[in-house]
Amino acid sequence: NGGYHPFLYNFTINSCKFLEKPKNSLKKYFYDLFASYSNINHSCPYDHDVLVNELPMSFLNSKVTGYLPFTKGDYVLKTSWLAYGINRADVTVYFSIV
């Protein structure tokens, strides 16, 4: 239909609280996409850069299309990363499901 589809999920995660008690299954799902390929998997405080390194696209593809109701099309994932009330990074990921 041209353009990107409206948002499928829209939520906020307080990472410090989430890491203390990771109960919400949807938030845990998104955390698990990156945790084993990053240095995010520890409790607060975060006083260093957060890195995602060597995350295989095949891993993401199997996790995204295998568990969430995505249809073929173009998508965008926009995230804002805040620490201590300050926006530290805006990350935008564009991807297509064919």
TrEMBL record:
What Pfam families does the entry give? DUF1091
Superkingdom of source: Eukaryota
PANTHER family from the UniProt entry: DAEDALUS ON 3-RELATED (PTHR20898:SF0), DAEDALUS ON 3-RELATED-RELATED (PTHR20898)
Q: What is this protein called?
A: Uncharacterized protein LOC115625399
Q: Which organism is it from?
A: Drosophila lebanonensis (Fruit fly)
**What gene is it encoded by?**
LOC115625399
